[in-house]
Amino acid sequence: MRLLPYFSSPNRLLLACAAPAAAFFTAFWLLPVVQLIVLPSRTGASTYFAVLGNPRYLQSLLQTVGLSIVVTLATLLLGAAVGITLARYRFRGRQLLLSLLTLPLSFPGVIVGFFMILLGGRQGLVADLSEAMGWGRTTFAYGLTGLFLAYLYFSLPRAIATYTAAAGAMDAQLEEAARSLGASRWRVARDVWLPELGPTTLACGAIVFATAMGAFGTAFTLASKFEVLPITIYNEFTNYANFALAASLSITLGLITWLVLFVARRLPGAVAVGA
Q1: Residue 268, SS3?
Q2: What is the pLDDT of residue 270?
Q3: Could you give the CA distance from residue 263 to residue 275 in angstroms, rounded to a whole number?
Q4: pLDDT band at 3, cuts 50/70/90?
Q5: Global pTM value
Q6: How far apart are CA 151 and CA 186, in angstroms?
Q7: Inside any domain, residue 115
Q8: Can you give the CATH number for the domain in which 216 is found?
Q9: 1 in a domain, yes or no?
Q10: How confident is residue 73, by pLDDT bands cut at 50, 70 and 90?
């Protein structure tokens, strides 16, 4: 089909094709981000540093970062162990087990939080069992333990799927060569597995950390005794209509998450890290 004169130039055709994407990007990303960055200035430049000047906001930030780091480390450790095992050993029901382990990928954070309440909430299974044993109703869903387990439950399927694929693609000849030279299991893990899985660990860790930092649905369901920054932001603009402060806290949260992803992309051996 012959092109119209206006589209005869490749550059004009490219611009015409890119125009809808540029309009969408400007309307739904660029303008809200600019508004978010400018908003704290309406109440003074000090609002940008509110997280450092208010103990409550600083505690919320530190709790969020600390929880995200612990969840990331636990996710990587368990995900690597399960993923390598599934990749190396063939047994009946392996695919079914992998499907079941990665099933929570389809659950939103609210459902994960609901699962945790069913397990460790006031009317949960653990409370019923502990009461039946005469220990009173034990609950853990609404504090640090509940959040940690829920975040881990939410993140672990991603790590298992990633490590299973990465371990399955490792060069088996390297491991065979190391074993033929008399290397122990520890030496094989240190000299073969770690270098081979290093980029996967870096990328997976960055994504798990970013996901934990910004998790809202799970935190909204469970964080009644342990405040994290997404809930702090939500409370500021919904309960107190403090949009400037909410924007400042959002900028802080976004900068930390972006910085981790940026560093992960720049480290040697890094693979593609998405947000």
Answers
A1: coil
A2: 61
A3: 13
A4: low
A5: 0.84
A6: 30
A7: yes
A8: 1.10.3720.10
A9: no
A10: very high
Tokens of 231: 């809930």
For residues 73, 275, 51, 46, the Cα torsion angle rounded to the nearest 10 degrees is 150
Burial pattern 139-149, b for ≥16 Cβ within 10 A else e, equals bbbbebbbbbb
pLDDT of residue 28: 84
Structural domain that includes position 92 = 70-225
Look at the chain and report how many structural domains it folds into: 1
Lookup: tokens for 215:
């998790």
Using the 8-state DSSP alphabet, how is residue 28 labeled? I
Cβ count within 10 A of residue 226? 19
Query: What is the rounded CA–CA span in Å between residue 138 and residue 126?
Result: 7
Task: With respect to residue 34, please indicate whether it lies within any of the assigned structural domains.
Answer: no
Q: How many helices (H) and strands (E) does the chain have?
A: 14, 0
Lookup: tokens for 74: 């636990």
CA distance 116 to 124: 8
The sign one gets for the Cα dihedral 204, 209, 210, 214 is: positive
Cβ count within 10 A of residue 215:
26
Structure tokens at 79: 């995900």
What is the spatial distance between Cα 262 and Cα 273, in angstroms, rounded to a whole number? Answer: 9
- pLDDT mean over 250-271: 86
Dihedral angle over CA of 182, 188, 191, 194, nearest 10: 180
CA separation for the pair 214, 210 (Å, rounded): 6
* Interacting residues of 166 by C-beta distance below 8 A, sequence separation 6+: 83, 87, 196, 197, 200
Query: Is 187 a member of any domain?
Result: yes
For 164-197, give the DSSP string. HHHHHTS-HHHHHHHHHTT--HHHHIIIIIHHHH
